[in-house]
Amino acid sequence: MERILRFSTRKLLAFVLAVALAVTSLAVLLPTVTKAGEPIEPITEVTIELGKMPEVGAKVESVVSEGATLTANGQGFDSEIPANMGYMVSTWDATTQDYVYQLIEGDDIVFNETAQYRLFVELTAEQSDKLSGDFVKSIEGIAPGYVDYVQWSDSGSMALVYDFSFHTVSFDSAGGSEVDPIYAITGSYIAIPTAPTKAGYEFWAWWSNEKEDYFDFEEDYIIHNIELDANWLVPTLDGDSQTFYLESDNDLAIRWDANKDDLQTLELYNVTTGEPIDMDENCYSLTDGSTILTLKNSFLKTLAAGDYSLSASFKDTNDDWSVAFATFSVVEGAAPVQSTTPQTGDNSNLVEFVSIAGAATLGLATVVALRKKVSE
What pLDDT, in 10s, does the model give residues 83-111? Predict the structure, then answer.
């Protein structure tokens, strides 16, 4: 009897252990669930959208009072947005000989362009527990990667801290009308300012010497003070949209309203193929009278039939840049005899439009290449 009892006890113990092991394995395989039975998915991305973005001159309290919307994995947290959101400003600590950040308190304190600010948004311990170890932190309207750090408290709550200092974007209009500076938060994008005006010129674009390219207001964001320089479009006085016939003996002359001695670069592109055309000083001549560029007949006859864009850059004695363009077409055969009788179905205007549109597409890229060559 005793032997049978011992055997049964061993079997019972083995059975209990097997059940425990099975339960443990099942717990590992199944997702963790809340009391309501809903799975808890690890949060891999947290985004904050402020009700109001800070601006120079705005009251801090008026910005904080607008609150923020907090989303996780593209959906809202299941608890209320914490009220503990605010801004800190750096102050100099004479004891530690270092800058420290203190919470901004007071109804009349305004943001200014010289102080260094930090935005913090505190998450509750409940929210913090749901975060994965390498979750992505971002704020709407700010380029990715500008969360300074994450700060934990003893209670298990966590604050996301962002650099919200202002940087000055200044504009050199290169002899044009004045453009006011823009104050931008670290990592933010700026709106395109009102274009300056300049007698006899058309505004072309804003150039960034730091980027060595034109500033892209949709893609480029601000991380420090920067100055942008205006580039102006030089008027083409004569010779735009000409046609050269390969069996002719003519040259092509183009006149731009710019000083010949200010010419820096000159490049030719085949609009049809998008390829640059090698061109040296033997291919053209330059004369005064603004800038008169004459493409020689011997050079023109080496070109394939198609549409072409000619781009030039000028830099005056004040180091101000301007650009110029002209288009022309190369056609097989001899020039047709001019007729005063209009022809039905004439599509010459359409051909000219397509040519100019193609040249405009290459124009911006061409001038960027020209400017980079000069800077090198």
Answer: 578 899 988 888 888 888 888 988 889 99
CA–centroid distance for 343 within its chain: 49
* Cβ pair 253, 238 in contact under 8 A: yes
Q: Are 364 and 205 in contact (CB under 8 A)?
A: yes
Rounded to an integer, what distance in angstroms lies between the CA atom of residue 323 and that of residue 365?
12
Judging by beta carbons within 10 Å of its beta carbon (0-12, 13-18, 19+), is residue 364 exposed, middle or buried? middle
As a whole number, mean pLDDT of residues 8-24 equals 42
